[in-house]
Amino acid sequence: MPATPDEIRGASHGTAPTPLSVLDLVTVGAGRTATQALRTSVDIARLAERRGFHRYWVAEHHSMPGVASSSPAVILAHLAAHTDRIRLGSGGVMLPNHAPLVIAEQFGTLEALAPGRVDLGLGRAPGTDGATAAALRRSDRLNEGADDFPQQLAELTRFLDDDFPDGHPYARIHAVPGPVQATSPGGVQDPHRPPLWLLGSSGFSARLAGVLGLPFAFAHHFSAQNTIPALDLYRESFQPSEVLDKPYALIGVSALATDDDGTEARRQVMAAALNMVRLRTGRPGLVPTPEEAEAHQFNEMERDFIRTWNANVIHGTVDEVRSGLDDLHKRTGADELMLTANAHSGDVRLRSYELIADAYGLPTA
């Protein structure tokens, strides 16, 4: 059954210019454990639900010590058990890393656990380095997975809808839980399935989402220079579908607010930036402490990278963050802002979402 617009389009609350959502990388800081990071995720999800954030997505990454979100479906099942209303989803599952049938089974299970509030966001990048991608896919021909993305997407959609045509090799294969249960003797099955989203950081998925009439999520938080061109391409390519009658695009945004004059936000953002420097130079690790970042001797190349990276992180006092989010919305026309708070401290991340909710007068219960 196609998604209804209300499952995709959120509602803004308070004075927020657009619906606000959360993107979680399950960040693990130095001196912290994955268990602690996952407990923080539960705390943030509960806060987001209580304060009127629209959805909470988890991003698939691999072989990164500072990012404990290698298994989005497992984390989402855990979050479903600790929340009641907020939409939960993947931001995203990297489709070329998995057999489409496996994804259909995982998200059919999630839909059974949390009926009517699961999103399936899909990306075509590996979410890791080439060697790890080869290990995941059991193949070193990585470009084939990305190039086959439209075909993989079509196959996944047919598994979710259980509608392979007669004569297809998969016509007798069914994703369970799924629609086949309704057609089995004595079967009763909710025909609803998670709405599909396409994720991207360039134009490929933007165009594909538009042509297919699907909602689109753009990774502004690490590809800011491509945001407006990709959104323009999505809107220009959009063709109405059973899913959407007009485009709907959200963007991921790095945002961190603190209670003080912004000093702590700058310290935490610098620690997260040092983590990115290490990741981009093949040395992934736990997110360093602000003290470690302050003591680090940055070379000229690292300083240049950090200036560019932090220019797209909205951070500081809560007023500065609110102003930055408002300006970003005006510049992009995004239908939804999905906030990700990257910091060493889970408490700082949690407090940032609370401060932003307060700044926009979001609901308190």
**Uncertain runs with pLDDT below 50, 5 residues or more?**
none
Largest sheet: 8 strands, parallel, barrel
Order the strands across the largest sheet as they lie in space: 1-2-3-4-5-6-7-9
* Overall helicity: 40-55%
Strand content: 5-15%
Mean pLDDT across every amino acid position: 93
Gyration radius over CA: 20 Å
Structural class: alpha/beta
Shape: globular
Number of helical runs?
15
Give the CA-CA distance, first to last residue.
32 Å
Report the order of strands and helices: HEHEHEHEHHHHEHEHEHHHEHEH
Molecular structure report:
The model has no long low-confidence stretch (mean pLDDT 93). This protein has an eight-stranded parallel barrel, surrounded by eight helices. β6, α10 (227-237) and β7 form a beta-alpha-beta unit. With 365 residues, it is of the alpha/beta class. It is globular, with a radius of gyration of 20 Å. It contains 15 helices and nine strands. The two termini are 32 Å apart.
Task: Describe what is shown at a glance.
Helices cover 44% and strands 14% of the residues. With 365 residues, it is α/β, with parallel strands linked by helices. The longest helix is centred in the last third of the chain and has 18 residues, at 263-280.
Write the layout of secondary structure elements.
Layout: H1 5-8, E1 20-24, H2 34-50, E2 55-58, H3 72-82, E3 87-94, H4 100-113, E4 118-123, H5 130-137, H6 142-147, H7 149-161, H8 180-183, E5 196-200, H9 203-212, E6 216-218, H10 227-237, E7 249-258, H11 263-280, H12 290-295, H13 300-310, E8 313-317, H14 318-332, E9 336-340, H15 346-359
Parallel strand pairs: 1-2, 1-9, 2-3, 3-4, 4-5, 5-6, 6-7, 7-8, 7-9
Helix pairs in contact: 2-3, 2-15, 3-4, 4-7, 9-10, 11-13, 14-15
